[in-house]
């Protein structure tokens, strides 16, 4: 464990004027490049082994399940930043069409069909390993321009992990944190201890800040892109050393916003995705699960959170299911 005077642990020791230096130092300390070979495309999902899934399956005791997804509809949080919009759902065939006899089917059969248009990261979703680059480099030291082209992510497309994101989930419930609250390593460790859970290799960690619950109560406001509680940049070393498979939050951007530097944008992403090879989930709905965990005192569960296998995508909508 580093000392409190170490900027890798203590946010107050960060040089707010030097995000580039902080990113470079953390990237050097926390790099998994080459760990699973030069051809690796799964990053930290390599920690989630078949043996880990067998262990996790034993966590199902009551058979109760919780969807951890927000609704995918026009009432979502997006406001158009970087062309991200809420889903647009359109009916192609309806019961009205069937009743009018205009569908052209024989012997009285009718049907309904629909289509949806949406950015892949407009609601509950995974960030894939092709989502963020550092100085032109993507996960495992590949050149970003070679990885993601107009045809999509030709190496680490989200389809490469479509069959592996299922295993032990652990919820860390922080209650209702104020916007701008930076969750540090000490907060993560203390919360895990208070809830009686250990976090380690291959786990999928869920962090509830309470921001989504507030947005539901008070309106979306700046939920998408504005101030938020979230992980401190200084948690990079914890994310690396615990060897977790993935981590997800109930916030838009995973890390604390505003970020902990004077001129920066999502610096923890810049270390976690391209260097650690870590999968980040955002905008997960953890409220019902948190209530159940508080009731029975059990904060670990079976979790399945497969992305849609959209070839070449750098992220994907997901409907995670926790089972206790």
TrEMBL record:
Entry keywords, A to Z: Hydrolase
Annotated spans, Disordered: 1-20
Pfam families recorded: Cyclase
EC numbers on record: 3.5.-.-
Broad EC category: hydrolase
Listed GO MF terms: hydrolase activity
Segments traversing the membrane: none
Name of protein: Cyclase family protein
The species this protein was found in: Actinoplanes sichuanensis
């Amino acid at each position: 464990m580093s000392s409190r005077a170490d900027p890798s642990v203590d946010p107050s020791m960060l040089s707010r004027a030097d995000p580039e230096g902080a990113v470079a130092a953390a990237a050097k300390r926390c790099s998994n490049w080459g760990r699973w070979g030069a051809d690796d495309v799964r990053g930290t999902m390599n920690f989630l082994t078949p043996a880990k899934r067998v262990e996790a399956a034993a966590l199902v005791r009551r058979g109760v399940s919780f969807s951890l997804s927000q609704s995918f509809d026009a009432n979502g949080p997006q406001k158009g930043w970087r062309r991200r919009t809420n889903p647009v759902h359109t009916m192609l065939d309806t019961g009205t069409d069937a009743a009018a006899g205009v569908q052209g089917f024989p012997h009285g059969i009718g049907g309904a069909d629909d289509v949806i248009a949406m950015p892949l990261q407009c609601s509950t979703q995974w960030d894939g390993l092709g989502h963020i680059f550092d100085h032109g480099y993507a996960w495992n030291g590949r050149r970003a321009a070679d990885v993601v082209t107009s045809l999509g992510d030709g190496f680490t497309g989200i389809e490469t992990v479509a069959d592996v994101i299922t295993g032990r989930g652990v919820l860390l419930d922080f209650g209702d944190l104020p916007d701008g609250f930076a969750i540090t390593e000490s907060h993560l460790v203390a919360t895990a201890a208070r809830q009686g859970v250990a976090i380690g290799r291959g786990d999928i960690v869920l962090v509830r800040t309470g921001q989504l619950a507030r947005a539901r109560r008070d309106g979306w406001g700046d939920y998408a892109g504005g101030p938020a509680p979230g992980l401190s940049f200084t948690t990079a070393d914890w994310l690396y050393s615990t060897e977790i498979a993935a981590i997800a939050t109930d916030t838009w951007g995973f890390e604390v916003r505003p970020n902990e530097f004077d001129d920066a944008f999502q610096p923890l992403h810049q270390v976690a995705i391209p260097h650690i090879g870590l999968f980040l989930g955002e905008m997960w709905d953890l409220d019902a699960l948190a209530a159940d965990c508080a009731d029975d005192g059990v904060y670990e569960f079976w979790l399945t959170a497969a992305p849609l296998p959209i070839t070449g995508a750098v992220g994907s909508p997901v409907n995670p299911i926790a089972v206790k």
